[in-house]
Design brief:
The protein starts with a helix and ends in a 7-residue tail after the last helix. Strand 4 (about 95-105) and strand 5 form a beta hairpin. The protein is globular. It is built from 6 helices and 6 strands. The protein has helices at about 1-10, 15-30, 65-75, 150-160, 160-170, 175-190; strands at about 35-40, 50-55, 80, 95-105, 115-125, 130-135.
Length: about 200
């Protein structure tokens, strides 16, 4: 009896094997898919080593701030979090962010979880835009369930890369692009989380 039970537990039905294979394939495709990010820009400025981040209480993604600070540290930039209007005057620059989410269930589960659809980052000093970048979930949503860090990384690369700053330095429409981006951030800051 024990032997027959043991043998049964080793046999996997073709249906279960097919589902497992499909799940592995979908996960692999999602991990290989490129992150979508809109054109960012960075203007020439002194190297930053310490910035202040204005807390956005509307963002519900629990690991966003820890991941943002970790990735800034990886780029040798320290950061401190402050409530709106309470940042000290000695901040080298201010980083503002908005994050939009939707709710959904990952494949093969009924559990509802939020996933990031949009990220806007705006870096300013004395009212002047130093850099910005944005992430948008692409139409195919391959990276829908990608980690917060995976979605943030290309944005910070754009904003804090010396190579990119050199590239964008000669851009004639930098000021107009920054103004449009700032207007977009303001609109999105008032948006609410949606459920899908």
């Amino acid at each position: 009896m024990a032997l027959s039970l043991s043998a049964c537990s080793l046999i996997t039905s073709p249906l279960v094997a097919g589902v497992q294979l499909a799940s592995t394939a979908v996960t692999s495709i999602a991990n290989m898919a490129p992150n979508t990010s809109t054109n960012g820009m960075a203007h020439p400025h002194d190297e930053l080593r310490n910035i202040c981040i204005e807390l956005n209480a509307n963002v519900i993604v629990a690991d966003f701030i820890p991941e943002l600070q970790k990735q800034l540290r990886d780029r040798e930039v320290e950061s401190r979090i402050y409530a709106p209007g309470n940042a000290p005057s000695d901040c080298e620059a201010m980083l503002y962010y908005t994050v939009l989410t939707q709710w959904g269930s990952p494949m093969f589960t009924d559990e509802l979880r939020p996933y990031i659809t949009d990220i806007n980052l705006l870096l300013k000093k004395n009212g002047k835009v130093l850099a910005n970048a944005a992430y948008r979930l692409d139409g195919m949503a391959y990276d829908k369930w990608s980690s917060t860090g995976r979605k943030l990384s290309p944005l910070l690369n754009k904003m804090f890369s010396g190579e990119n700053m050199t590239q964008w330095q000669g851009s004639g429409d930098g000021a107009n692009g920054a103004a449009r981006f700032e207007q977009d951030v303001s609109k999105r800051a008032g948006a609410t989380t949606t459920r899908n």
